[in-house]
Amino acid sequence: MGVVSIKDQAAIVGVGATKYFKRGESYPETELSMACTAILSALEDAGLTVNDLDGFAIYSNSCDPAEVASVLGVPEVRFAASLTSGGGGCAGALGLAAAAIHGGMANVCVTLMTLQQLNKRLGGSEVGGVLAYATMSESASPYGGGGVPPSAAFTANAGLLSPGHSFSVLAQRHMYLYGTKREHFAEVAMSQRENARKRPETALRTDPMTLDDYFNARMISDPLCLLDYTQETDGAVAVITVSADRAKDLRQPPVHILASAHGGTGSWGPGIFKYFQANDDEFASSGHRPVAKRLYEMAGVTPDDVDVALLYDHFTPLVIMQLEDYGFCPIGEGGPFVAEGNIRYGTGKIPVNTHGGNLSEAYIIGMTHVREAVEQLRGVAVNQVEGAEIALVTGGPASLPVSGTLLHR
Amino acid sequence: MTTRPEGTQGVFPSIMTESFADDSTKPFWDAAAEGRLVATKCTNCGTFRLPPKPFCFNCQHRDIEWVELPGTGTIYSFTVVRHPLSPMLMPAVPYAAGIIELDGTQGAGARMICNIVDVDVDAVKIGDKVEIVWEHVNPGMSVPRFRPVTS
To answer: N or C: which end of chain B has fewer CB within 10 A?
Structure first.
């Protein structure tokens, strides 16, 4: 018996989404209604119906499959599982879908995110008098609420309240160790803004951005300014995964799940939000290095084979660290690598976030990256990478698990 | 030891006024009330862990001893928070907050995340030497912060 693997066993055959909204403007829609809209749209795209849907392979408990199945009238749910933690799982959830399908537990899986930042703000800003991160619970999700565990008392008065604050601390260490500069962060922000501007039908940040604009933006938490932070948006995106065999007969050209991996080291753990246990060799990283290694091994490809990279970009420095951790450049050289124009669409060695990313298109906790990867490999992306055959999608950096998936046409 | 007025620039206000201590964390807060910094040390392998956790991440043993530390350390990394996430933080910004590697420990695994006070926030650097300063919020809660060593 050969090695059991999900390699090339499943394919994405449908993509659906709501409109993307500025924070709160999706009201009176709800997270549930938007999830259902995106699912129906993705099924329609695939040429399937609710009667075919039997699996939920999600992350960050993005929806309650029980509720969605009830609302949409799904005849029978056969698989309902979520990767733990938060946005780090968006790419890995595709691997979860492939595993469910390859393992014979489900036939048609949806992976989705739905987000409405009306009564909550993932960035940690106070809504209704509650500072979520200050008294964070020890639930599996960093976005969880709940009581005040004794360990929270060790950090609640420190003043690091949000993901942005935590990632600022990582970025500062990266600058200290490797000489990374704010100009490098700016290049990530500017290149993605250029990509977003070319597709204003989905982009929310469409004004051009110059280096002066970047340096004139207000500082939020050193070394990060407003333009290093993702925007806050609402919306839902869903994709449908089926077996590679079944994908042959459906409406759209299949986008195959070449490989998928998620996880991270124990010392990474919840560290970025809490105790910062990681040693120097991984502290100033995206936490993706072990995931990247397994991903490339499963796929049997190298970074040179990747045609377009959709890297989770809640904060600009973490794009640079992922470029290092996924082997597009040596560790510590991500700053100069982007400064040399290597991530620019059209001219760069490895086009990054051709849709504009979380930073300039929309922040739906990573699912927009999955959508863009599928569009690139179908050959219908607005900023189409000519001849794109292999796309990398990542989730996180965040608490463990972080994740990566390689897709090919 | 100091008690500060509400709303001091550079000082993150003590938003928790009780430690919510359990058996595993109470010795820390009891020592804090006396202005002493203590940490748990694995009696099997000597690895420090802070905050306390039920197992040693190095050798998986459970037994610990509480060891008093000198209360000095080095800024491992930091940020200066300039945008208040809550209206109540408007008087506090900009404030520095970061990770302190504690003298007397192995470093990673026993770091503290703290507000760095009594400092020009624009002058804070990685590698700066700092010392602990306790704010006695009430008889049951003392908050650790760090300030530059001024010697």
So the answer is: C
Interface test with A, best of B113, B121, B145 (most A CBs within 10 A): B113
Residue B14, pLDDT score: 81
Asked if residue A43 is part of any domain, the answer here is yes
CATH classification code of B26-148: 2.40.50.840
pLDDT in tens, A301-314: 999 999 999 999 99
Q: Are strands A109-115 and A55-59 parallel, antiparallel or unpaired?
A: parallel
Interatomic CA distance for residues A221 and B78, integer angstroms: 10
Backbone angles phi, psi at A111, to 5 degrees: -120, 130
- Tell me whether residues A154 and B113 touch, CB distance under 8 A: yes
Helix A65-72 and helix A31-46: axis angle, to 10°?
70
Q: How far away is chain B from the Cα of A124, in angstroms, using its nearest Cα?
A: 7
Does residue A103 belong to any structural domain of this protein?
yes
> Smallest Cβ distance to A158: which of B20, B97, B126?
B97
Structural domains of chain A, count: 1
How far apart are alpha carbons A137 and B38 in whole angstroms?
24
- B12 to A124: CB separation less than 8 angstroms, yes or no: no
Closest CA to B98 of B70, B117, B72, B71: B117
Scanning B73-132 for CB atoms below 8 A from A yields 76-83, 85-87, 92, 95, 97-99, 107-109, 111-115, 126-127
Query: Residue A171: inside a domain, yes or no?
Result: no
Residues of A with catalytic annotation?
A: 312, 363
What is this model's ipTM?
A: 0.95
Give the closest of A149, A276, A279 to B99, CB-based: A276
What pLDDT is attached to residue A132? Answer: 54
Tell me which of B4-8, B31-35, B41-45, B59-63 is least confident.
B4-8
- More confidently predicted of A272 and B71: B71
Residue A15 maps to which CATH number? 3.40.47.10
Res B3: pLDDT: 55
For residue A401, which phi and psi values (nearest 5 degrees)?
Answer: -90, 145
Please report, for chain B, the start and end positions of each structural domain, with discontinuous segments joined by +: 26-148
Asked if the model's pLDDT at residue A271 lies above 80, the reply is no
